[in-house]
Specification:
With 130 residues, this protein is mainly α. The protein is built from five helices and no strands. Pfam families: MazG-like.
Length: 130
């Protein structure tokens, strides 16, 4: 994500659900531990892939991964891994100067063009198969 002209003095100044707030909190967390030196795009991408694998592990060997197949510890594990994935993703976007929210909105629009609802409804094939 692109850095704002001047970072807010406190995360409280940002909306509670903001990716900008998460970015600021992860920056502070890393800075307090002198971990910024380790948060290169390569390292963050690798850490993100590890966390995605840990998330997938909760669904491994389940028939579908539907809610009825998950017990409370599995749900909590999934919750924690999703948080790890999100936080690493926010940090990676920060390091790569990608506005994650804007990129996601653009991707949704591109996918809308690539997969028009009236053409693909109920069909999960890749776009080059239509």
């Amino acid at each position: 994500m692109s850095a704002p002209p001047s970072a807010p003095a406190s995360a409280a100044a940002l909306p509670a659900d903001s990716l900008l707030e998460l970015r600021e909190l992860t920056r502070r967390f890393a800075r307090a531990r002198d971990w910024e030196q380790f948060h290169t795009p390569k390292n963050l991408a690798m850490a993100l892939s590890v966390e995605v694998a840990e998330l997938a592990e909760h669904f491994q060997w389940l028939a579908t991964g539907a809610d009825a197949e998950l017990d409370a510890p599995a749900r909590e594990g999934i919750r924690q891994e999703l948080a790890d994935v999100l936080l690493y993703l926010v940090q990676l976007a920060d390091q790569c100067q990608v506005d994650l929210r804007q990129a996601a909105l653009e991707k949704i629009a591109l996918n809308g063009e690539k997969y028009p609802a009236e053409v693909v409804r109920g069909d999960a094939r890749k776009s080059d198969r239509y």
